[in-house]
UniProtKB/TrEMBL annotation:
Keywords: Hydrolase, Protein phosphatase. It is an enzyme of class 3 (hydrolase). This is protein-tyrosine-phosphatase. Its EC number is 3.1.3.48. Gene3D superfamilies: 3.40.50.2300. Belongs to the low molecular weight phosphotyrosine protein phosphatase family. Signal peptide: none annotated.
Length: 157
């Protein structure tokens, strides 16, 4: 059985696709076969690529960036082992959609995997500039080792 992780932000064009590509690379580097994707709580950008600034921030750091936005659906809870919210609003939205307590427990905040996080949220860079997208990438990269460790633990238990 394949382990599956999804990241969820608002529109699925900035934070969650960035997290998807960063985690995918980290898992490949760790030799772990895990499916990773992303979606948004809203459907505003369905079918669109990631924001050009997200693509640029990923490419500057050597990550892939192919993406098509989609909206998270409650019926997907059964597909995933971990559902990673990028901020507290997404966490609340996702947990309120969850059909069971077990599904609510699958939803976690990304920055809880960063022991040095100064905030529980990955700030939305959409209304900012290059520095905001770089900071977003930095926050995701800082949480990635802890998330990989969590996945390793789950795969071996």
């Amino acid at each position: 059985m394949v382990f599956r992780v999804t990241f969820v932000c608002t529109g699925n064009i900035c934070r969650s696709p960035m997290a998807e590509h960063i985690l995918r690379r980290r898992l490949e580097d760790a030799g772990l076969d895990v499916e990773v994707d992303s979606s948004g709580t809203q459907g505003w950008h369905i079918g669109k690529p990631a924001d050009h600034r997200t693509i640029a921030a990923l490419r500057r750091a050597g990550y892939t960036s192919a993406h098509s936005a989609r909206q998270f659906r409650a019926l997907w809870f059964g597909r995933y082992d971990l559902i990673i919210a990028l901020d507290g609003g997404h966490l609340r939205d996702l947990r309120s959609m969850a059909p069971s307590e077990a599904d609510r427990e699958k939803v976690r905040l990304l920055r809880e995997f960063d022991p040095d996080a100064d905030s529980p949220d990955v700030a939305d860079p959409y209304y900012g500039g290059r520095a905001d997208f770089e900071k977003c990438r930095d926050h995701i990269e800082a949480a990635a080792p802890g998330l990989v460790a969590e996945i390793k633990t789950r795969l071996t238990s």
